[in-house]
Amino acid sequence: MPTTKAEAVWNGTLREGNGVMKLPSGTYEGPYTFYSRFEKGAGEDTGTNPEELIAAAHAGCFSMALSGQLANAGFPPETIASTAEVTMATGEGGSRITKSHLITRARVPGIDEQTFQEKVQAAAAGCPVSKALAGIEITVEATLEG
């Protein structure tokens, strides 16, 4: 299996500084700041944050895992659209990611609801990003579209 990497550069202090995160493939490069991470909507919130990128990774990984689960069971999906909502909370030990809630809609010909939900749960537990996030709560809301 390949080793994947990404790059982040930070300049300055936590509150006043800024940085850039980028993928070596060139498909993404974007700014991030204290405001884009902790104070969305505060005015200076342009940019991304690490949690947003984790959410994208979780949604993508889960969608691929679900596709594999469904195809292996004889139900190749037409489409799977997933969102991950990553929650960060601040407590005694500082800030930490506490939850990732996956929301998915899938069009899968010929599958029944029970089998679909079983494959959803298997994908949520089995995707590599879910395994990397094993220390947090992971929930799934899945809709089988007609």
What does it look like?
The chain has 146 residues and is of the alpha+beta class. Helix content is 32%, strand content 35%. The chain has helices at residues 34-38, 50-72, 113-126, 128-132, and strands at 7-11, 18-22, 29-33, 79-91, 94-107, 137-145. The strands form 2 sheets. Strands 1-2-3 form a 3-stranded antiparallel β-sheet. A 3-stranded mixed β-sheet has the order 4-5-6, with helices on one face. The relative contact order is 0.14. The mean pLDDT is 93.
Q: What would the keywords be for this entry?
A:
3-stranded antiparallel sheet, GMP Synthetase, Chain A, domain 3, 146 residues, 4 helices, 32% helix, alpha+beta, 35% strand, 3-stranded mixed sheet, 2 domains
Summarize the structure.
The protein is of the alpha+beta class.
CATH superfamily of the largest domain: K homology (KH) domain
Helix content: 25-40%
Based on Cα principal axes, name the global outline: elongated
Q: What's the architecture of the largest domain, going by CATH?
A: 2-Layer Sandwich
What order do the SSEs take from the amino end to the carboxyl end, as H and E? EEEHHEEHHE
| Number of structural units classed as domains | 2
Q: Write down the Rg.
A: 18 Å
What's the N-to-C terminus distance?
36 Å
Biggest β-sheet: strands ordered side by side in the sheet:
1-2-3
Mean pLDDT comes to 93
Can you count the helices?
4
